[in-house]
């Protein structure tokens, strides 16, 4: 046979099956375009040059790999629908005398044509929108954008190579399926379907149990670090349980419906129930895939949107001052008296050089240690098992004078007394001790929602602020802990924060000069080991670029992946309706011939479609509801504690997705209706 014949047959095959090929090629092209855009941003010099750009580019590189892996899985899944429609045609070629090698060549030409068109169109669209995507990214990060149009040769080659490899694998898979199938099997493939599966009640019950355990983990985990450790475990359990329930549970439901004879044998219910039972194994897997993809899209877009819009509050909590100096001393003597005054004076002098009068000054000392409550109430173990995240307590000691100046209170304590403020947990004890030693009598105890000490909100562990008489008491506690467990936690921190009216670049210069001038101070001449351990000055403007660049990258990646996941779900729904429409067409022909009315057909179809369509949406909503507590705690790792903002973004995201999902349902249900009951028949 001539090459032209194979090309013509391949083109004819694509043209005749354009109803299946067109969505497939659009999905391929869209995925190619998305991959190019992500790769373009990854290699963008404009993005790399902005503050926080390195983190952004790293996340985009991760996004490239995620998209490549998902594209492979997704295209394999959708290609199976495509090949299912073509098997009968290939079987006819085989019966008419065309050998398997020749059919394989037709399949090769179809694959090449599809690959070339998809990759070329996808790259064209990706190149056209890549600059807009870059501008959006730069805008979200608050940086300055350039308006030159460029094409990334590296991104073009990478994208083309990735998808060429995927199409090669698709061809080999299709060729293998064709090779091991006989002509008769190919011809009858559409009508063969599945044997009615048996209801596996054990698998269904196991799925419910696994899902219940996953929900329990999501609801009961309280500590953010512990939530991060359990999150992926819960995700895997939800995915497995969803497939178990969708496959076995739906089969059991169909069996129950079929046992109700009066309902099952009514014209409206007979075909939809028998059709669902006939292919429920395949149906269940498809519904589970739609559900998981929808849930992933919902979780990603709602959480990252919340992070982006709540980033300002989280940033303010972590960086409460425009300029903040931190000095870490090795002993309490260094953190007292004249040294602190010298530091204050040098900062004031440096600010004056910039014509700045510091505002909203916060000046305080503290020391911290990590511990946990075990056994005796009020006794903190500093040698706790670090895998026990739920019991972790961030204990902050602060002298009463610093506390009073910071919070405007008038606490007065004796050497053996303490005032305690807890955040995130309740302390029920009249004393507080550490490793069973150095007990302090609690004269004041209260709980608050937020840490009263500025800048400590980023610590996700539950906190205990312990106000004591002075630094000597803190040193006594640390010395006792050291003697008890052999670990030296002694470090004493002084923070000096203030606001200015300077622009971002001048803030950076001021912070740089403060750090340099303070480094020149000699706190203990001739005793280098007794000096300060660390000294640095942060400015909010510098931190802002990195902070918001990171969240912008997360949002961008989430939007891209959500679009891809949603597109995958839509395409699965479309192919599912298309393939089932052709399978059900003959059944409805019989029912029409025996007198089934147009209204009965529509009601029967709507019953089947509503059952199949809205089951994944309901499960997605259920998964999202139970995931909410765990994701909310994960938000705390990023400094976001606004529950209502997360609740609002989650609700809006789900509502918008539901509207979109219903629109997809109406379009695909009309496609199904036109196939099984065209106007000329009804």
Describe what you observe in this structure.
By secondary structure, this protein is an alpha+beta fold. The chain folds into 3 domains: 192 residues, no CATH class; 266 residues, no CATH class; 218 residues, no CATH class. It is built from 20 helices and 10 strands. It has a 7-stranded mixed barrel with strand order 2-3-6-7-5-8-4. A hairpin with a 2-residue loop joins strand 6 and strand 7. The longest helix is centred in the C-terminal third of the chain and has 54 residues. The chain starts with a helix and ends in a 6-residue tail after the last helix.
- Give the N-to-C terminal Cα separation: 45 Å
Percentage of residues assigned to helices: 55-70%
Task: Report the principal-axis shape.
Answer: elongated
Total beta-strand segments = 10
Proportion of residues in extended strands = 5-15%
Taken in chain order, the helices and strands follow as: HHHHHHHHHHHHHEHEEEHEEEEHEHEHHH
> What structural category do the secondary elements indicate?
alpha+beta
Secondary structure tally, helices: 20
Mean pLDDT value = 77
The profile of the biggest β sheet is: 7 strands, mixed, barrel
Key features?
elongated; alpha+beta; 682 residues; 67% helix
Give a summary of the structure in a few sentences:
The protein is an alpha+beta fold. The chain has three domains: 1-192, no CATH class; 199-322 and 541-682, no CATH class; 323-540, no CATH class.
Secondary structure elements and pairings:
Blueprint (H helix, E strand, L loop, with lengths): L2 H14 L1 H25 L2 H5 L3 H43 L4 H42 L11 H27 L3 H5 L1 H4 L8 H20 L3 H36 L1 H4 L2 H12 L1 H39 L4 E7 L8 H16 L5 E15 L5 E3 L10 E8 H8 L9 E7 L7 E4 L2 E12 L13 E7 L2 H15 L6 E8 L4 H16 L12 E8 H54 L4 H38 L7 H34 L6
Parallel strand pairs: 3-6, 4-8, 5-7
Antiparallel strand pairs: 1-9, 1-10, 2-3, 2-4, 2-9, 5-8, 6-7
């Amino acid at each position: 046979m001539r090459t032209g014949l194979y090309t013509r047959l391949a083109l004819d095959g694509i043209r005749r099956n354009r109803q299946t090929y067109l969505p497939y090629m659009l999905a391929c092209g869209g995925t190619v375009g998305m991959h190019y855009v992500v790769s373009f941003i990854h290699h963008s010099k404009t993005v790399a040059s902005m503050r926080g750009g390195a983190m952004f580019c790293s996340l985009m590189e991760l996004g490239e790999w995620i998209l490549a892996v998902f594209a492979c899985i997704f295209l394999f899944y959708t290609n199976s629908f495509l090949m299912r429609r073509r098997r009968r045609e290939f079987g006819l070629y085989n019966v008419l005398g065309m050998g398997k090698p020749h059919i394989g060549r037709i399949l090769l030409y179809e694959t090449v044509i599809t690959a070339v068109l998809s990759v070329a169109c996808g790259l064209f669209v990706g190149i056209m929108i890549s600059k807009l995507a870059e501008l959006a990214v730069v805008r979200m990060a608050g940086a300055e954008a350039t308006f030159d149009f460029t094409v990334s040769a590296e991104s073009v080659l990478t994208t083309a190579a990735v998808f060429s490899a995927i199409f090669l694998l698709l061809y080999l898979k299709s060729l293998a399926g064709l090779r091991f199938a006989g002509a008769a099997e190919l011809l009858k493939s559409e009508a063969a379907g599945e044997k009615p599966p048996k209801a596996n009640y054990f698998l269904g019950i196991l799925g419910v149990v696994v899902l219940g355990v996953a929900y329990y983990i999501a609801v009961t985990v309280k500590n953010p670090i512990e939530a991060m450790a359990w999150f992926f475990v819960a995700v895997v359990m939800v995915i497995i349980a969803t497939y178990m329930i969708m496959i076995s549970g739906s089969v059991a439901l169909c069996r129950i419906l079929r046992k109700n004879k009066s309902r099952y044998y009514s014209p409206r219910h007979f075909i939809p129930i028998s059709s669902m039972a006939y292919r429920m194994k395949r149906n269940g897997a498809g519904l589970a895939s739609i559900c998981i993809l929808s849930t992933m899209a919902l979780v990603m877009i709602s959480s990252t949107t919340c992070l982006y819009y709540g980033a300002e509050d989280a940033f303010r909590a972590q960086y409460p001052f425009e300029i903040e100096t931190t000095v870490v001393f090795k002993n309490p003597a260094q953190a007292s008296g004249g040294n602190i005054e010298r530091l204050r004076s040098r900062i004031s002098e440096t600010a004056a050089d910039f014509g700045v009068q510091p505002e909203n000054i916060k000046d305080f000392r503290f020391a911290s240690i990590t511990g946990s409550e075990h056994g005796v109430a009020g006794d903190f173990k500093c040698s706790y098992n670090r895998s026990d995240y739920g019991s972790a307590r961030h204990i902050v000691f602060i002298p009463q004078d610093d506390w009073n100046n910071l919070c405007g209170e008038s606490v007065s304590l004796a050497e053996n007394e303490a005032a305690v403020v807890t955040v995130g947990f309740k302390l029920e004890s009249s004393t507080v001790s550490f490793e069973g030693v150095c007990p302090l009598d609690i004269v004041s105890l209260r709980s608050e929602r937020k840490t009263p000490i500025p800048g400590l909100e980023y610590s996700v562990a539950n906190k205990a602020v312990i106000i004591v008489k002075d630094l000597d008491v803190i040193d006594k506690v640390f010395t006792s802990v050291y003697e008890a467990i052999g670990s030296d936690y002694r470090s004493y921190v002084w923070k000096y924060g203030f606001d200015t009216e300077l622009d971002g670049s001048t803030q950076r210069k001021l912070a740089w000069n403060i750090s340099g001038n303070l480094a020149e101070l000699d706190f203990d001449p001739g005793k280098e080991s007794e000096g300060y351990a660390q000294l640095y000055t942060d400015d909010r403007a510098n931190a802002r670029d990195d902070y918001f660049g990171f969240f912008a990258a997360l949002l961008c990646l989430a939007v891209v992946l959500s679009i891809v996941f949603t597109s995958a779900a839509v395409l699965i729904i479309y192919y599912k309706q298309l393939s089932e429409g052709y399978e059900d067409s003959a059944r409805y022909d019989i029912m029409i011939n025996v007198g089934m009315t147009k209204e009965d057909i529509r009601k029967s179809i709507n019953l089947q479609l509503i059952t199949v369509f809205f089951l994944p949406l309901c499960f997605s909503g259920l998964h999202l509801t139970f995931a909410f507590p765990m994701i909310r705690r994960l938000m705390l790792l990023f400094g976001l504690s606004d529950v209502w903002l997360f609740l609002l973004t989650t609700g809006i995201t789900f509502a918008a997705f539901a509207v979109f999902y219903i629109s997809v349902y109406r379009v695909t249900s009309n496609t199904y209706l036109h196939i099984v009951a065209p106007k000329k028949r009804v």
